[in-house]
């Protein structure tokens, strides 16, 4: 029942619909990617991996306690802009299939055992890369009661890629530096 005393409800703000988005296009422009430089980096990573391992490089990620910022950049490596797989690099589900262990975040007390077990499950020779400031040094979370600190305090680290978080191109450049270093994996 309506009455004159009822207050008319104010119109609700219109939400964008899928059709509206399709009509107007994506709301944000894609990030600028230096495709030529990226392709060159990727080609060199692929070439180095093949000469050192005889095949492409397999990566296994352990989030040891990150805020997920570093994971987002690692995920970006697999999106259509960066398309890591065209260079033969791939993320694997099992550590037994991996060459490189990527660690993100400060190592929390809860994740210590999982990180150690993943490290030991990767066959030799293997490399460990600390991705981002937290894994490299403990970062923002240094001294926190729930954190042990840098990845190197739990597993031997071959390379640290700084940044909060490092950008996809820096991650790719880090992997290239790892493969080009004369150094053998810390534990082979
Ligand atoms: S380095 Fe930055 S983005 Fe990465 S886990 Fe730490 S706080 Fe998050």
TrEMBL record:
What Pfam families does the record point to? Answer: Oxidored_q6
Q: Does the keyword S-adenosyl-L-methionine apply?
A: no
The answer on whether this UniProt entry bears the keyword Iron-sulfur reads yes
Q: Which UniProt keywords apply?
A: 4Fe-4S, Iron, Iron-sulfur, Metal-binding
The source's superkingdom equals Bacteria
A Gene Ontology molecular-function term?
A: 4 iron, 4 sulfur cluster binding
Where does the NADH:ubiquinone oxidoreductase-like 20kDa subunit domain start and stop, copy by copy?
Answer: 67-178
Q: Residues annotated as region Disordered?
A: 1-35
UniProt cofactor(s)? [4Fe-4S] cluster
Instruction: Describe the family membership recorded for this protein in Swiss-Prot or TrEMBL.
Output: Belongs to the complex I 20 kDa subunit family.
This chain belongs to the protein called: NADH-quinone oxidoreductase subunit B
What is the organism field in this record? Answer: Methylacidimicrobium cyclopophantes
Q: Please name the taxonomic classification of the source.
A: Bacteria, Pseudomonadati, Verrucomicrobiota, Methylacidimicrobium
């Amino acid at each position: 029942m309506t009455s004159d005393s009822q207050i008319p409800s104010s119109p609700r703000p219109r939400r964008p619909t899928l059709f509206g988005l399709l009509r107007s296009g994506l709301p944000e422009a894609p990030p600028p990617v230096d495709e030529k430089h990226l392709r060159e980096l990727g080609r060199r990573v692929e070439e180095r991996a093949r000469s050192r391992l005889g095949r492409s490089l397999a990566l296994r990620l352990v989030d040891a306690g990150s805020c997920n910022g570093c994971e987002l950049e690692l995920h970006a490596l697999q999106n259509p802009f960066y398309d890591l797989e065209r260079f033969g690099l791939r993320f694997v589900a099992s550590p037994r299939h991996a060459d490189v262990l990527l660690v993100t975040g400060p190592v929390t007390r809860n994740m210590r055992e999982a990180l150690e077990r993943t490290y030991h499950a990767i066959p030799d020779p293997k490399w460990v890369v600390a991705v981002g400031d937290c894994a490299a040094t403990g970062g923002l979370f240094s001294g926190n009661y729930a954190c042990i600190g840098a990845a190197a305090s739990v597993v031997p680290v071959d390379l640290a890629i700084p940044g909060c978080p490092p950008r996809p191109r820096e991650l790719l450049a880090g992997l290239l530096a790892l493969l080009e270093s004369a150094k053998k994996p810390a534990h082979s």
